[in-house]
Each structure stands twice: as structure tokens, then as C-alpha cells.
């Protein structure tokens, strides 16, 4: 290294020759799949993907060739007006489960939480749950009506909505059925499928109380009916108290307008409450003096107990956490110190502590919670664990600021029975076996 | 409305018939551009886009037809493994300026901040600045070397990097040249071009001090050279003090792995410091006992003063703010109460206050700063202003937690002269003329 001009010694300065197109990308496009593409791109270097993956952090294992990417001019700034992830990340996608529902229009897909970092979910992979498919709304023709027990019923266009003061807050959105297939045992081998009906974004919108001020709620108005503009006409009853607290009519997520599948151009946001109530493509809010008892809050989204009665209006999401690495999709590859990483959340406010166990819950240690820890938002946690090739039972346990402690499945079922589909916030167990593979198991 | 079953009265329940494909989307694809597409989609409803846009918030102006989107099943959950914005948002893209640079590979494009909401910048539109184009790195073959004044030089693979504890923090990244074309007057008519060399995302990565602990910096090691893996071999000197404070080696932004144009798979993050130092595709860190004085920190990225001398190592970004609506791209369409919205930031920590003026800086009022306000992160502000059709001079002024106040251009030039390209953090003025159009103007 020449310290006077900083010129590198490996020939990278021979750049400046435009390349017609990237060999790595061409190889990727030719082979299609992400893993195959990565291997093919590796082969350009004269070094196969798996061989490179096995290399240790040791100068002697460096590829002997200069990587091709130092030798070419890359694409210019006009190439991608709206960018996309690297082709090497093509495996980070939402996935659905074909046998789960009769049609994809009334179904769900799952966020790939095993491949995410931090607590923001990228808009491209926020899980979807539809009752009539992704509705495509033209924002110019879109209208929101507010009627019922109000002084002045009104209809708002998006231009009207944009003239009110806005808030931008990070909130998690969890489907009440997240982890629901696990009630009767370990069913699904992958954290994407056991816990992936969740996302967390920065929602921007107008506080609902600001909009309600415009119409004037009458003294006997105590409930709202929120109605979606899709073909399912999804609607839910919401108590006025929540509407006046932290509810929001959101038009943006993570800086840009809502994605069509997440309610473009306007959705209801009910921080900390179950996702099905966050009505998408919201077209009408009616103010009434009692709940409506719609199909979605009676025959659906209620929790059937052992005695045949059902819990209903179980809106608030209890504290919960899950380890997203290691997990079935992310085996332990390394003997020695590894990271445990995961996500925790509570519909009641901030996460106070997360504990992790490597012995199935007999002993617990405190995980780190890196800043910022925000209320009703996903919270990252991490901790070290040393793996010596023996079997390990990994668990995490969240505690929120109200003191609520995430329960075991056994404790939860003692109260709720085994009929329910919804609100399973119990502790998840991953078995790391002697090969480092990770399995979804049920303890006790 | 029948309150017993919640069935809507407008015929939307006639849904359930699968449609082959969306008329709105087909119209959009046929016409290509976003605005034309929106108008065409409006025509499906028998109501043109502009007519609908002019409709007031009044039931009498509701479109007489039921919107088509309530009458069809939308796309199912398998349709988009990785989602994209609505076709109606096709105007929200990065843009470059053709005359600005000789080639697009050594150029910049600009974040469309006039169309964003909240402080998170979506990954798809984070501005790019390249010296050799977008380098496409294969993460399997990627290596980071640390050498120089260290006890044990080491080479790290991405798998090695993933085994360290991580942080996830929101930081803005601003190019030192942002607003640089405005030094000598009002040059560019659009906030995307005057202030769009900025983005703000949740970066996830390993604190640099953790990696330096692995190699052991020798007692006389006081500076780092960070070297990029692209064809330009971009490198910059960084004082060890910053590396041990809040510097990070980041692999993810907004939850997913870095985009190729933002340094995939690993980049340096230097919170609050000018963007060119956040070396992308970082391949090597050398520890030394003095700065290297590379080309990028001597002939470039220094600030030429009136007396011919240059300020150098001007790393920290001073407090700055700008109104992103109204702005040249967002005229005032409405007489009466409108929102002023904008962004503020400081490389020294938190924004404490933002003031806005509607009379060119003679009178100031306090803007709202909605939670959360985070250090070295974009901060949203908003305030009402009433427009009666007269000319208005809009300004914003940021104050950070150190007490630093964003200066006028006149005050800045008294100290810095007019030769500089970099570090223009002066107050921006927008003239709202009598038609509601907004112009970039220079006062005094």
C-alpha cells in the first residue's frame, strides 16, 4: 500500500471499462432460483458457492482471484428508478400454505421473519390476510364516509385527508391467528409459518380523533363500525374509547403510500390490537351506541373455550416473543459462540425484558434489548449461546411493562382449553439436534 | 343498514365472482404513465380523474356508480411473493439530472422526499451516489480484511459477521453535496433536487468496535482507512475515536439486507457524518497512525473558502431542515387551512425545535415534532398555515440539542464565501405565488 496516494495494490484500479451486463446477474437470471443463481455467480470466480461458504476466516482461504465486481463499472444511477433487493436475496419472500385455505383470495401469507434484521418489516414482505383478495383502489375516486350518531355526516377524499396534521409511529400488526396452528402441538416446521403473521412498519396517518372532531360524535355515540371497501365488505365494531386514544387512519407505511395489499389508500390502525380489526381500504365509519356483532366478531375471531362458551372482543394482543435465529430455517452451523436473535412484542405497551433459555425453560438469562424500545412495536433481542454439538432446547419469554409474563403452552391451555385458533402467545420451543438442525417441538 | 347482520346496502355483497384481471391495472399498463393511468382507471367508473379530484367533501359529489373495486375478488396471496407499490404511485421514484455529470456510473440520483411520509425512506427510493456504478457482490465470496496496526490481521466472511451481536438504529445519511447547487442562488425548482441527497433507514449491523476488538488495535493505531470493493476503490480516513463511538458495519436496512446500490452485503455507517465516508461494499479496513489524505478527502469533499484555502475533514453534518410540502412539486391547491410538513436533522444528535415562517423569516412559529424524535435521524415536523391566495414566503429553521441554529444563506456565505459545493445547510425559501404554484427563490 502506497500511503501517499492510497492506491490499492490488487489491480482494482484497472476499472473504468464499461461492462455490457453483469455476469453474476446474467447467471442468476439464467438459472432462475436464488440458491442456484448464487452458486452460478460463484462459479464465475472459479470457486463454487459451497466451497466458499466452508472457508474459515483465515487469509489462506481467500479466493485466489480478484473478485469480478472490482473490475467493472456497475449500473449507473438511471438504471433503477425504484430499486429491488439483490438477486442473492430472492429467497426472502412471503409464502402461503396451499392446504390451509380453499382459495388464495380468502387466505394468508407469511412474513419471512427468519431472514429479517431489526424491527422494521420491509413493505415488500409484510404478510397479507385477505377476505376477498387484494383490492385495487383508485385514490382519485376513493371516498371515506362517516355517518351515524354524528352532528354532521361527511365524506372525505384523499386530498381532504392530507390536509390534517399527521403522526408517524412504529406499530406491530399481528393476526389473532398467528401461531394458531400450534395450539394442539408442533405442527409447522418453520418460524415463517408458526409466527410470520406479523409485521411492523412506521405508519403515517391522521389520528382518528381528529377526523371524528370534524363530524362531531353525539353524546350517545360509544361504538364505531369500520367497514372495508373490498368485495368482502369486512367490518368490525370498535369502542369509541380506542378511537379517541391512539387509533389512526393511515395512508403510508415505511415512508411511502400503503401497498395495495395493505389497504391502499387508507386503512384503520388500532395499535396493539388484533390485525383483522385494522380494516383495509376503509370506506365507511358509522357511529352507534352498541357493538354490531358482525360475522367477523361472532362466528370468527372469537376464542372457543373447553365449556363451549366463547371469549369475544379479545382485541388486545398479549405479550409474546419468538427466536428467529436459530430456527428451523436457520440451523446452527458453527460450534462455539453463536447469536440467539428474536422479536418480542406486547399490545399493552413496551417490552420490559426478554429471557432466553437453552435448557427448555429450567434456567433463564436476560437478553439484550438494543435501542430503541418503542411501545406496541416489535422489539429486537439478542444473546450469545455456546454450542458444543449437544442437543439444546431454545426458548424465549417476554415480559411487558405491565408485568405480564409470556406463558407456557401448558399454562395457557389450563385456562383456554384446546379448541381455540386465536391468541396463542405461548412460549415457543426449538430443539437444536446434534447435527445443528432445528426442529419445532412441544414440551410437557 | 341492517344492524342485525351488518350487511351493507350498496350491492357490494354481489362480490365473489372472480375477475380475470383488474380493469384498473390493465388500463394502467396500457397507458404506461401514472397520471394517464389514473385518469384511465377513473374512466372505468364513468367519471374522469380531474373531475373527481375537484369534488368537495360533500355527499352530493359522490360518484353515482359503485366503485368497481368493491365488485370483484382481488388477487390472492400467492400473487406477489415480493410486493410493489400501487401503479397509482409510479411517480414516486428516484430521479437523476442528466446534465449534472458526464456518466451515470459516477453520478447521483435523488430521493423523492416531496412524496414521502414519516421519517423512514423506503429502500426502493433511497438516493444513490456512485463513483463506479452499482457493484454487485456475491455474498458467498465476499470478504472483509482488517490489517495494519493490529495484533492479529483477520479476514471475515458474512457468516463470521452474522455471529456478532447486532444493533438496529435509525440514522439519516446525507451527501455533503446535498443542496450544493444552491450555493450561488436558486438553481433547481424541486425539493427532490435541492434536498433529495438524503435518506433515513433502520440500519442493522455490528458495532465497529466489536470487530476491532477481534483484531486488537495497537496503542499507536489512531486512524482507519475504509476501502470500498467497487471499481472506484473509494476510500476515506476515519479517526479511531468515531469507530469506537457509534460506527457500525451494517448489512441490513429497513429489515432486509442492504440493496446492491447501497453497499450489499456490508457498508460502513458513520452516524451524523457526511455520506461519502459511509464506504459501501467495504472490503478492507487498515489501521494506521495518521490520516491517508486520499483523493476523496483532499481534491474532493473539501470546502474551498474565499481566500483559496480549503476546510477539510468537515465530517459532521450541521443541523438543517426543509419544507417538503408545499414545495415546487406540491403546489397549494386549497384556500383555507393547509399543512406545512417537512424534515429536520442534525449530525450532532436530536432535533430540539423547528420553526416555520410564512413571511420570509420575519416571524417564526413553533412546528410540531411528532414522536419519536431520535438522535442523528430525520425528524418530521408539521404546522398549519392558512392561505388566502396572496404570495407567501415559506421557510423552516432547525435547532438541535446542542443549541445550534440553522443559518440563513447570507450568514453562511459571510463565513464560507461562495466557492464551496459542500455543506450548504442554510434555510430554504419557497415562494407560494398567487396561483398556488411554488417557486424556489433566494432572499436578500
UniProtKB/TrEMBL annotation, chains A, B:
The keyword Ribosomal protein does not apply. It comes from the Bacteria. SUPFAM superfamilies: E set domains (SSF81296), Oxidoreductase molybdopterin-binding domain (SSF56524). InterPro entries: Ig_E-set (IPR014756), MoCF_OxRdtse_dimer (IPR005066), Mopterin_OxRdtase_euk (IPR008335), OxRdtase_Mopterin-bd_dom (IPR000572), OxRdtase_Mopterin-bd_sf (IPR036374), Sulfite_DH_SoxC (IPR030835), TAT_signal (IPR006311). GO terms for biological process: sulfur compound metabolic process. The keyword RNA-binding does not apply. Residues 313-429 form the Moybdenum cofactor oxidoreductase dimerisation domain. PROSITE patterns: TAT (PS51318). Its cofactor is Mo-molybdopterin. Residues 131-292 form the Oxidoreductase molybdopterin-binding domain. Keywords: Metal-binding, Molybdenum, Oxidoreductase. Residues 1-26 are annotated as: Disordered. GO terms for molecular function: heme binding; molybdenum ion binding; molybdopterin cofactor binding; sulfite oxidase activity. This is Sulfane dehydrogenase subunit SoxC. It comes from Rhodospira trueperi.
Amino acid at each position: 500500500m502506497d500511503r501517499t496516494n492510497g492506491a490499492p495494490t490488487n489491480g482494482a484500479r484497472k476499472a473504468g471499462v464499461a461492462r455490457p451486463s453483469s455476469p453474476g446477474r446474467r447467471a442468476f437470471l439464467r438459472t432462475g432460483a436464488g440458491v442456484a443463481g448464487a452458486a452460478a455467480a460463484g462459479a464465475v470466480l472459479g470457486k463454487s458457492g459451497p466451497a466458499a461458504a466452508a472457508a474459515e476466516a483465515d487469509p489462506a482461504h481467500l479466493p485466489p482471484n480478484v473478485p469480478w465486481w472490482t473490475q467493472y463499472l456497475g449500473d449507473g444511477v438511471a438504471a433503477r428508478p425504484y430499486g429491488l433487493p439483490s438477486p442473492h436475496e430472492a429467497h426472502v419472500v412471503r409464502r402461503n400454505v396451499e392446504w390451509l385455505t380453499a382459495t388464495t383470495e380468502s387466505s394468508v401469507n407469511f412474513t419471512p421473519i427468519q431472514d429479517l434484521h431489526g424491527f422494521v418489516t420491509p413493505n415488500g414482505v409484510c404478510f397479507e390476510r385477505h377476505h376477498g383478495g387484494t383490492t385495487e383502489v383508485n385514490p382519485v375516486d376513493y371516498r371515506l364516509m362517516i355517518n351515524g350518531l354524528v352532528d354532521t355526516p361527511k365524506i372525505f377524499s384523499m386530498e381532504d385527508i392530507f390536509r390534517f396534521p399527521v403522526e408517524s409511529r412504529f406499530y406491530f400488526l399481528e393476526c389473532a391467528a398467528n401461531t394458531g396452528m400450534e395450539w394442539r402441538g408442533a405442527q409447522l416446521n418453520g418460524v415463517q409459518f408458526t409466527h410470520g403473521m406479523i409485521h411492523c412498519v412506521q405508519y403515517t396517518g391522521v389520528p382518528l380523533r381528529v377526523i371524528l372532531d370534524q363530524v362531531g360524535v353525539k353524546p350517545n355515540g360509544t361504538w364505531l363500525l369500520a367497514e372495508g371497501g373490498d368485495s368482502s365488505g369486512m367490518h368490525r365494531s370498535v369502542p369509541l374509547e380506542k378511537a379517541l386514544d391512539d387509533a389512526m387512519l393511515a395512508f403510508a407505511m415505511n415512508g411511502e403510500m400503503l401497498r395495495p395489499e395493505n389497504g391502499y389508500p387508507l386503512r384503520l390502525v388500532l395499535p396493539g390490537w388484533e390485525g383483522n380489526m385494522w380494516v383495509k381500504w376503509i370506506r365507511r365509519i358509522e357511529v352507534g351506541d352498541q357493538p354490531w356483532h358482525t360475522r367477523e366478531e361472532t362466528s370468527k375471531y372469537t376464542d372457543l373455550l373447553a365449556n363451549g362458551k366463547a371469549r369475544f372482543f379479545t382485541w388486545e394482543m398479549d405479550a409474546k416473543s419468538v427466536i428467529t435465529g436459530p430456527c428451523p430455517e436457520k440451523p446452527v452451523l458453527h460450534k462455539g459462540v453463536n447469536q440467539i436473535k428474536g422479536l418480542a412484542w406486547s399490545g399493552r405497551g413496551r417490552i420490559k425484558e426478554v429471557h432466553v433459555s437453552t435448557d427448555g425453560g429450567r434456567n433463564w438469562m436476560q437478553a439484550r434489548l438494543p435501542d430503541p424500545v418503542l411501545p406496541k412495536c416489535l422489539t429486537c433481542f439478542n444473546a450469545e449461546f455456546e454450542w458444543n454439538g449437544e442437543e439444546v432446547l431454545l426458548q424465549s419469554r417476554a415480559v411487558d411493562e405491565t408485568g405480564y409474563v409470556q406463558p407456557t403452552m401448558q399454562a395457557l391451555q389450563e385456562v383456554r382449553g384446546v379448541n381455540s385458533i386465536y391468541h396463542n402467545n405461548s412460549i415457543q420451543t426449538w430443539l437444536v439436534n446434534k447435527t445443528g438442525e432445528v426442529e419445532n417441538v412441544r414440551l410437557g
